[in-house]
Amino acid sequence: MLDYWNDYPELQKNLIKVKELISQRLVINNQSIEEAITKFSSTGGKMIRPALFFLFADFGNKKEPDQLIKIAASLELLHSATLVHDDIIDDADTRRGMPSIQSRFGKDVAVYTGDFMYTSYFELLAESMSNTPFLLKNARAMKKILQGELTQMSCAFHPDQTLCEYLRNINGKTAELIRLSCHEGAYFGGSDKKIQARAKRIGSSIGLAFQIYDDILNFSIELGDEQKPILTDVQQGIFTLPLLIARDNRPDIIRPYLETPEQLSKKELMQLAAYVAEFDGTSGALAFAEKLTHKAIKEIQQLPDCDSKMILTNVATQLLTRSY
Q1: Could you tell me if 2 and 19 are in contact, meaning their C-beta atoms sit under 8 angstroms apart?
Q2: Are the CB atoms for 191 and 300 separated by under 8 Å?
Q3: Which of 26, 143, 257, 294 is 20 to 30 A distant from 42 in Cα terms?
Q4: Burial of 243 (0-12, 13-18, 19+ CB in 10 A)
Q5: Which among 167, 117, 174, 180 has a CA at the least distance from the CA of 145?
Q6: DSSP code at position 26
């Protein structure tokens, strides 16, 4: 999905280099894992995290292209590895509109594939930032991502889950890596500490808004297709912001659906999605995501003037209008 960046050719050129480096690193003498990696890579992702990394690197005056490419690749590898392992836990049949690795090759191959991605991620860290504080920051980021997944697991199938618990979950499992991407870009691009701190705040806001909008899409019946399956979270007991807002607005109608969500029929799921829209779950969640995006844009406006400042503003806005 690198065509997502067609309007920004310089950024797209760097992302192609990242993709090429990842392909070079993910070579292994095991036919099943090699094929699994090839299939996963062919589906493609938007590469949001390395893109944000490069955009923030532009605000500094220190440019070491090979190092930047390696760090950007490490971010995408970490993200990819978590997706592979998430699909195993969720028993997901598809990923990006294609059969997931675990459904196509089995859980054993999927586990090893995710693990191999992690080893390549660690190699890139050692090569690109061994004498910096970011080895420790990456370790802590991985821990926060795991904690986000674990707290989401502990909240699963709990009809009384709070909005604060939901936000804590997505702050770890999604926003943490986007925050790290922005922070690393500013640091390794040579920006001062003030810009680095602003990069972290922007990353937090964009990361939270990104996940909230993703959760809105999961309830958007009109957008459901093979590329973006809908209504999958509810049956896994994952109650996201649109559903929680609708529940708080009309608990008498919504709460019964949350008692045994894994048993809901397709017809009941469709009715629930209609209720979520009717009881302001969708609009309320979108307003929340828009508020976070406006917060990010306000911070972006305080950054030094350069082409990446404009691109960041556009990207933050576009992430709330995507259909996938």
Answers
A1: yes
A2: no
A3: 143
A4: buried
A5: 174
A6: -
